[in-house]
Amino acid sequence: MTGRIFLKLIAGVLGLLLLALATVDYFTTRVAQQVYIDSLVRQTTDKTHMVALSVDRIDAVGLPTARAIAAAAGGRLTLIRGDGRVMVDTGANAATMENHASRPEIRRALEGKPGWAIRRSGTLGIPFLYVAAPCRGGAVRLAVPYSQVETQVAQIRAKILISTALAFLPAILLAAVVARWISRHFATIMAHAGELAAGNFRARLPISGGNEFGQLARTLNDTAANLQRTVEQLELEHSALERLERVRKDFVINVSHELRTPLASIQGYTETLLDGALGDPQYNVRFLGIIRHNAERLARLTEDLLTLSRIEQKRQKLEFEPHSMAGLLEEAMDLVRPIATKSSLSLATELAAGAPEVWCDSEAVSQILSNLLDNAIKYTPAGGTIVAGARPAGRFVEVYVRDSGAGIPAEDLPRLFERFYRVDKARSRELGGTGLGLSIVKHLVAAHNGTVRVESRAGEGSTFFFTLPAEEAALPQDMPESEPAMGRP
Ligand SMILES: Nc1ncnc2c1ncn2[C@@H]1O[C@H](COP(=O)(O)OP(=O)(O)OP(=O)(O)O)[C@@H](O)[C@H]1O
Ligand SMILES: [Mg+2]
After folding, report:
1. Average pLDDT per 10 consecutive residues for the chain, totaling 489 residues
2. C-beta 428 within 6 A of ligand 1
3. Does residue 434's CB lie within 6 angstroms of at least one atom of ligand 1?
């Protein structure tokens, strides 16, 4: 393709050269011919006049004299009487020649004026210039071969054509260089277009400069950059969708699994009871106890799932009002105090100055705190301490629940707030946990425009933090529409 462009450009320049040569040739030929004919006619006329002057009487000139004159004049001499009869001719036998009175040059000469004509000689068969002049008793005529003119014109044509072609040589060389340059740029651009077509949007054209190629290269590079950005964006969205789909599948699998375990247990023990154990006082109460435990677990699980879905679909209406942080903490502590006491844990509240009020839904905050305290109690061995507190953090208040419990390994921290994520599944289940508590906390805090985080080290206890708006303006203005309950961790 680029080779073809190169050839086309060169062919164009050569075509132009040929046209120029043809034009130059046409005009030089015409002009040169005219000039040479004029000059030949003039010279021959002068010679003819001189011959005419030297001829005393037509019939007195013999052939030898005529030959001598013709040789001196460089042509063929013919002497014609006033009636047109050829008396002497140095090129042919005068006796056999026809009457020349009708020849145009002779006619004029016989009329007393010089005349000339170019035509093919009937005797010799080649073109001649015939010039005739009047003389005493008739006319003299000198004929010179016309081929002289043609030879000279041919020489001058050749010279002019060669010099024109030579003058074009630099232009042809320049055209070849330019054509090479253009076709090379085209080759680079085409290779680049091929890269783009193959999906390699990282490819960039190395052409620069302010010419059209530079501009084209910049436009193509911009286009490639835009395509690259779009593709990267699409890839990001695609992987986000894939991640969401994975989360959704995991969620379905987790829910089914969580439901299956207590249901299977209930089914198994019910069948055992129906098969006869109902009458066995050693087992019936124990089995019924297990059935009740699993039914409670199912109830808690479904209740938690419903709570999550309600928050996510914003069906849980939150009433944001100013509340005393101290009051909210105390209330939550009072609720868990009996269990804490039973587990030999000491409870304390810390309230930094300047954190007196928060804008929140008290029901929701109570749910958040009870989940965090519940975890702290569950995962702290007897004798430990649990502290709940709050401190100002700009337009927010940071609330925390700290325990001196088992702590959480660093590798589990990033996934802790995911649904069903438990550090020790068996232990959590044993403690009646569903693994949804922290997920609920995260969503409720988010509904307040707040954030959650955790600091913990295995064996050194954990501290869970969340923020609540300290002023009305920090409340969510326009809550974004949540994704479906199953779509998020
Ligand atoms: N204070 C804590 N100390 C140590 N580990 C904790 C603490 N809080 C949470 N965890 C770990 O995080 C996991 C997830 O907690 P989350 O509250 O979501 O679930 P759960 O307590 O197991 O069950 P649920 O709260 O639904 O009854 C827990 O299983 C536990 O492994
Ligand atoms: Mg919990």
Report:
1. 74 86 90 89 92 84 90 92 92 89 93 92 84 92 88 89 86 85 87 89 85 88 92 94 89 88 93 87 89 92 90 86 94 95 94 82 95 94 95 94 94 92 80 87 95 92 96 78 44
2. yes
3. yes
Ligand nearest to the CA of 441: 1
CATH number for 317-487: choose from 3.20.20.370, 2.30.40.10, 3.30.565.10, 3.30.9.10.
Answer: 3.30.565.10
Protein residue with least CA distance to atom 8, ligand 1: 375
Q: How far apart are CA 253 and CA 14, in angstroms?
A: 78
Ligand closest to the CA atom of residue 303: 1
3-state SS class at 150: helix
Question: What is the DSSP-derived secondary structure letter of residue 348?
Answer: E
372 lines ligand 1 (CB under 6 A): no
Q: Is 398 exposed, middle or buried (0-12, 13-18, 19+ CB in 10 A)?
A: buried
What is the number of helices (H) and of strands (E) in the chain?
10, 12
